[in-house]
Amino acid sequence: MIMLEKMSAATTTAESIRLPGNLDCHPDEGILLAAIRVLRASGYGHVRKLRCEVTAGVITLLGVVPSYFLKQVAQEAVLRLDDIQEVKNLVEVRRPEVELFED
């Protein structure tokens, strides 16, 4: 069973996915599932939490990471997938909030 949220006829995004044994789906959905698998397999927690959308073979990466290194790790991971036309890396880089302790 695949749980997908359709954003429009040509755009697909996913929050939670259960993969079936036999998958017949729209090509963008197959790319989306592969991208999610690659991101979730990362050894970096922030990369595993990123979201992605696929429209006509173009993967858009979304979310926040604490370094440009992790932004690049995510991009390189999905660039290796078959059948993608382009990667739009819209991941934001923000320094983690540091709490100051008062005495």
Walk me through the structure.
The chain has 103 residues and is an alpha/beta fold. The radius of gyration is 15 Å and the shape is elongated. The protein has a domain at 25-93: Histidine-containing Protein, Chain: A. The chain has 3 helices and 7 strands, in the order ββααβββαββ. It has a 5-stranded mixed sheet with strand order 1-2-3-4-6, with helices on one face. A two-stranded parallel sheet has the order 5-7.
Task: Describe the SSE topology.
Blueprint: E1 5-6, E2 11-13, H1 27-40, H2 45-48, E3 51-55, E4 58-62, E5 64-65, H3 68-79, E6 86-89, E7 92-93
Parallel strand pairs: 4-6, 5-7
Antiparallel strand pairs: 1-2, 2-3, 3-4
Strand residue percentage: 15-25%
**How are the strands ordered across the major sheet?**
1-2-3-4-6
CATH topology of one domain: Histidine-containing Protein, Chain: A
Largest β-sheet summary: 5 strands, mixed
Can you count the beta strands? 7
Topology as a string of helices (H) and strands (E):
EEHHEEEHEE
Helix content: 25-40%
- Multimeric status of the protein: single chain
- Class by helix and strand content? alpha/beta
Which radius of gyration do the C-alpha atoms yield? 15 Å
Instruction: Report the end-to-end length measured between terminal Cα atoms.
Output: 53 Å
Mean pLDDT across the residues is 80
Low-confidence stretches: 1-19
Named at the architecture level, the CATH assignment of one domain is 2-Layer Sandwich
What is the CATH class designation of one domain? Alpha Beta
Number of helices: 3
| Tertiary shape | elongated
